[in-house]
Amino acid sequence: MALKHVAIDIGMTNIDLVVEDSQGLRMHMLTNQYEKAEDQVREALETLGEGLAPGMTLGVTGGRYRDLPDEVDGFRIKKVDEMVALGWGGLALAEVDAGLVVSAGTGTAMVAAREGDVSHVTGSAVGGGTLLGLSKLTLGTADVHEVDRLALAGDASKVDVMLDEAVGGEIGRLPKEANAVNLGKLVRDVDFSREDLAAGLVRLVAQVIAVIAINAADAQGLEEIVMIGHLMDLASVQREVRLVGRFYDRDFTIPENPGFGTAMGVLEAMRRG
Fold it and tell me: Which of these, 27, 43, 51, 116, has the minimum number of CB atoms within 10 Å of its CB?
């Protein structure tokens, strides 16, 4: 079946594809096995196989996409600014006209996206790569699905110092059930499980991203906060982000298929010409 559009997002860990044909959209996530952008595009082409029309245009962003030539193996390359892609993609997935779009992947980027205008606001080096690095060091695994499973079964309060323990109650809008110090109990001789530690690691990473996002959205005068990126595929991360939202009375929109948000933005760019 002939493809109408091919959108490629080259991440540090994964390569995401969104392809559009007469029957709708299909999404693919590949492991990024190559260093050079041309080889990364070729990996995507091998996955797509039939349906690629000779000379068709491929939309590409992410990684070292700027290094790509104008053509790869006879296919024209449309380079899409990564910040524009994540902004348009987040708005499209969430079906909103404006918002702070947070791309939580290996690292984290945040843009202010309004109809026709996308600007980079801030970000953090804390992201999925941080979670997996700490998990490898402390849990002995960098398997993202195992970390997610462990965290969902754990209790972060076994490794975090909680507000009730630190000051005896709530502080401002934060209830006594909120944590005061991430992983603060690890300096003591306390009992905790592997699952508890995983829950603490997820909470640490998710809280950093969510709190920065709230402050960035407020600074930009944006009510909507849209969370995309493959870190948001994890149920444990979603749980912690929503908990931060409850503490600060803010809603986080986590659309379906959040990991393909930036690739969806490339598709939007292809559609707009």
Answer: 116
